[in-house]
Request: fold
Amino acid sequence: MAGSVFGQSLLDQESMWWMFSLLAALSAAVVVTLSKVGVKNIESSVAFAVQSVLIVGVAWGVVAWQGHLGQVAEIDRRTWLFLIAAGVITCASSLLSFQALKLGPASRTSSFDKISLVFSILLAVFFLKEKVTWQVILGATMMAGGAMLIAFTRSSE
Reply:
């Protein structure tokens, strides 16, 4: 076996991206729900800081459990720069999401956050030179439209 994650060969993993994406989406939905309750009585940045400590602990625990700690020493300078930049932006994104969640309803803030799909596609086209089809453009447009419809619909309260 060339390598494995969660007991699957790398070849099998390539065809299983959709399952991990779906599980990530389900997990994200649970996180939004739990975080909305969590930010109710505290400042959103405090809630994010608490979760971040747990994220760091679990992430390094998984790396250690999988036996990949040695790979840290193999990371080149360019990769470090990209990972650090992505980490800083992840923190900013999460802080902004937690503040939005504190101020607005979970269903509306989390749906509007999904407009990131459009930005992801644009960034992938311009920086990663990925090709998009008319189906991707149509789907992204429909998802963005749906997110905006949900986010800006007047509440019945």
User: Anything to note?
Assistant: Residues 77-103 form the longest helix (27 residues). DSSP finds seven helices and two strands in the chain. The mean pLDDT is 89. The two ends are 57 Å apart (CA to CA).
